[in-house]
Amino acid sequence: MALQSRYTADRGLTTRMVTTMFLIGLLYVVFIGVLLVLLRDAWPMIVIVAGVLFVAQFWFSDRIAAFSMGAREVTPEQAPELHGAVDRICALADMPKPRVAIARSDVPNAFATGRSERTALVCATTGLLHRLEPEELEGVLAHEMSHVAHRDVAVMTVAAFLGVLAGMITRVALWGGFSRAGGNRDSGVGIALLLIPLVSAVVYAISFLLTRLLSRYRELSADRAAALLTGRPSALASALTKVTGEMARIPTRDLRKAEPFNAFYFAPAFSSKESLSRLLDSHPTLEQRLDQLARISTELGR
């Protein structure tokens, strides 16, 4: 996938995105096929609902995510420092300027959404703006805009669709399936209604793990691309350390509200301490990210 900017291309990320999309697509086809077999009489409804949900997820998920995270677009007059930092990154990367937004939250973080550079939005929280120095802020924004340049934001949006669909079907089936299954003991309908939650749960688990694996790599890729673009890996490392440290001072209630959007954020609201739990994390550990930035700093110093 050729980039239309000066961000360093990442073949490893491209390979992982293509692989994830292929496996998610294959899983999606199998999932719909199982539903068609189990609910033969309802196949038109299944096809229509799956198609509508896919289109809605692809076209509107970025807006829904931005709205859910409290992002509000701001003008250069309203946020001159933030716009100035975005302008400098755009000039360095030779890419179109995204929409710029601020989320009123004390949780120090930033995120990017959008299907393409044309529809992209970059948002910083008030907590981040109050805590970071200008160079640190530019490093974070360069990280977020690399997600747009690499198009992994769009891939994550599509990849997450199957998990959302499977989870929704699981809840619907569990809510109404078992009661109906009791009245269909003499037919295969009862068995089908009992199998749907199980199949949906398996599909959800597989799609969740696939997106988590891609998410952790894309964060490392974004760190690397941002450090090479700005030439200041130490500024990004400082921002990472500061943001992670400040998370411990944020009330748990506020972190819980932010946790569902971890996959979008620059740094997770919560990170697992146990090695086994880290398999479910959306981000690599702070140590992994800082080690990579230290290596890049050494390379640039040469």
From TrEMBL:
Keywords: Cell membrane, Hydrolase, Membrane, Metal-binding, Metalloprotease, Protease, Transmembrane, Transmembrane helix, Zinc. It is found in: Cell membrane. Its EC number is 3.4.24.-. Its main location: membrane. Zn(2+) binds at residues 143, 147, 219. It is a multi-pass membrane protein. GO terms for molecular function: metallopeptidase activity. This is Protease HtpX homolog.
